[in-house]
Write a structure and sequence with these properties.
Helix content: 40-55%
Shape: globular
Number of strands: 16
Distance between the termini: 36 Å
Radius of gyration: 28 Å
Strand order of the largest sheet: 1-8-7-3-4-5-6-2
Strand content: 5-15%
Structural class: alpha/beta
Number of helices: 22
Largest sheet: 8 strands, mixed
Length: 615
């Protein structure tokens, strides 16, 4: 057994050992069976009867070919039906277990298997003489290339889901079925799909992919499940045999087949340490979120589903700093009405009764385009979604009314995304006031997300108008530094760049002059090299995914607020982001349980690299 290693980019952190299994290994596909040889015995006829015989044979051959084509079309339809039914069962199983967001992703994959255009493209090829397998493979690849080339990254990422549908249809055609071996499994594929990670009855502990993006459905699911995921592996990894032992270490961004005894022992120790660490961090949930010198920081959660809300409360969150509302409507064909908004909001808000909940209104943009907005812009891009919302006041009013009714049992705050100017916030406030008046209820606090450089530049004006300000660090960082959000370099560690810190500092100063709170609800709020800087700049609230709240709290409890302020002052005049990282390591390197050496220097460099790669 020869040891082999493959490097990649980490999209989800962790270490795992398991049995290698390729999910997209091409099955041996049989050709369609034919009835008879179709050969013509030239000696069976002579003279004038030869033409008539040939015509009869041709008619028989044409009928036979038509029968074969009809059978091939039925095979194609049956294959896609099998995939759709499989996805429906998977989605129902996940939904019954409370994993709503993952169930929704699987449901979308099932819709792709039912897509009439995809099926028509495949059956058309069958009518031209292709086998069922050839027709499915060609149709899926054609559509995947078209989708993958779209400017909208969210739609482009669905090419992976489409290819997954194709792989499963081909497996069904090849008689392989849709089951897989028992775990623990390390999955590999040209492009791992979300459904690969969620297959019921199999224990997936890690995955590796030749291609794929950090914001793909698979990456999102991997992070939510705590499954290490590597992207960008050498295609040679696909030639490895199933059944080999594989080690995936996201911190080192490597996959090793037939690891050496020492590597194996190290991985098992790291996995044990990770379990101990999670337990030690969770044990501090009852402790206040404050620094060593008693500076309090409010800790809230970013959520999108009822399950997220439950996880946030279990992790000791003060409330919700960001409730995303657009996720249920990314496949919508028209603007959602009040009833649809209420149906999506009610299960989440019920879990959060009595808690502060900041709800972000619909945040459609070029990376989140529902079908009813496709092509809305002059160049096929929609840009900011807020102007489109303001152009449809009835759509805005429907969401406001739903929020005011379903959120009545919470400490509701409403947040407007992608605000560029105070006039936009004023227009939103008028619509909210009218909705509240029509229902006879008070107007809740209305705040803004600062995600645009122009909004940061007008922070003073926005602070006068808004009840609170929330920094969307993902977009703000990308826009200030001129990075694509899909680029690994747009990761949360780059919020530590001096130019981004200066913008955040400007927002904090303006907000505090007007006695407004500032929260940070992007991924930077959880990053170990950025948290001290946000505290040092004076941010009041940090809001992040429920899974990372325990670590954020533990980290804050081991920081000194004055040291954070000193680091922030030096960072603002640093040359570049690398110098800022060095400053944070020098002043703010807390030791987290159960570590016995410097947490930042020993572990967090890997975490920094991991999260940069996951976008």
């Amino acid at each position: 057994m020869n040891r082999r290693s493959f490097g990649g980019r980490a999209a989800s952190a962790g270490v795992a050992l398991g049995t290698l299994h390729r999910t997209d290994r091409p099955p041996a596909l049989p050709r369609p069976r034919v009835a008879g040889s179709g050969a013509v015995d030239g000696g069976a006829a002579a003279g004038g009867s030869r033409t008539a015989a040939a015509e009869g044979v041709a008619r028989a051959e044409a009928a036979r070919e038509e029968t074969v084509r009809e059978g091939t079309v039925r095979e194609i339809e049956a294959a896609f039906d099998a995939v759709a039914e499989h996805q429906d069962r998977l989605s129902a199983s996940l939904r019954a277990g409370g994993r709503i967001e993952q169930a929704d992703i699987m449901e979308v994959v099932g819709y792709l298997a039912q897509d009439t255009d995809l099926r028509t493209a495949a059956t058309r090829r069958a009518a031209e003489g292709a086998s069922a397998a050839e027709a499915v493979r060609a149709a899926v690849e054609e559509y995947a290339r078209v989708i993958g080339a779209l400017a909208d990254p969210t739609l482009a990422e669905r090419a992976a889901d489409l290819r997954q549908v194709g792989r499963r249809a081909l497996a069904w055609l090849g008689g392989v079925g849709l089951a897989r071996p028992a775990g623990p499994l390390v999955l590999i594929a040209h492009e791992v799909g979300a459904a690969d990670l969620l297959e019921p009855g199999s224990e997936v502990v890690a995955a590796g992919s030749v291609t794929g993006g950090p914001n793909s459905h698979a990456a999102i699911v991997a992070r939510s499940l705590g499954i290490p995921l590597l992207l960008g592996l050498d295609p040679a990894v696909l030639d490895l045999p199933d059944g080999a032992e594989a080690l995936v270490d996201a911190a080192r961004a490597g996959l090793t087949v037939h690891p050496a005894p020492g590597e194996r022992a190290g991985a098992l120790a790291a996995m044990d340490q990770a379990r101990s660490r999670r337990a030690a961090l969770a044990a501090e949930r009852h402790l206040p979120c404050e620094t060593l010198d008693r500076h309090s920081v409010i800790l809230r959660a970013n959520v999108g589903t009822a399950a997220d809300g439950e996880a946030a409360l279990r992790a000791g969150a003060d409330g919700v700093g960001l409730l995303r509302t657009e996720l249920p409507f990314l496949e919508a064909r028209r603007w959602p009405d009040e009833e649809q908004h209420a149906a999506a909001l009610a299960p989440v808000l019920r879990e959060l009764a009595g808690r502060p909940v900041t709800v972000r209104t619909l945040d459609f943009a070029d990376d989140k385009v529902p079908p009813f907005l496709a092509g809305a812009g002059p160049d096929g891009r929609i840009g900011r979604g807020l102007p489109l919302m303001l152009a449809r006041p009835e759509a805005f009013t429907a969401q406001f009314r739903a929020l005011l009714t379903t959120g009545a049992g919470t400490d509701l705050r409403i947040m407007i995304p992608m605000v560029a100017a105070p006039g936009e916030l004023r227009a939103c406030r008028e619509l909210l006031r009218a909705a509240a008046a029509s229902l006879g209820v008070p107007v809740p606090p209305l705040g803004v997300m600062v995600e645009l450089p122009e909004a940061a530049a007008r922070a003073e004006e926005l602070a006068r108008e808004a009840a609170f300000l929330s920094v969307g660090s993902n977009d703000l960082t990308s826009r200030i530094l001129g990075l694509d959000r899909r680029d690994p370099a747009a990761g949360p560690a780059h919020t530590a760049h001096p130019a981004v810190l200066a913008a955040i500092g400007q927002v904090v100063e303006a907000a505090h002059r007007h006695r407004r709170q500032v929260s940070v609800c992007g991924d930077a709020a959880a990053h170990p090299l950025v948290i001290p800087l946000l505290i040092g700049l004076g941010c009041d609230v940090l809001s992040a995914a429920p899974a990372v709240l325990d670590e954020i709290r533990a980290r804050i409890r081991r920081l000194d607020a004055e040291a954070c302020a000193r680091a922030a002052r030096e960072a603002l005049v640093a040359r570049d982001v690398e110098e800022v990282w060095g400053i944070v390591e020098r002043y703010c390197s807390p030791v987290l349980p159960p570590w016995s050496t410097s947490g930042v220097r020993r572990v967090d460099h890997a975490v920094r690299w991991n999260e940069d790669s996951s976008g």
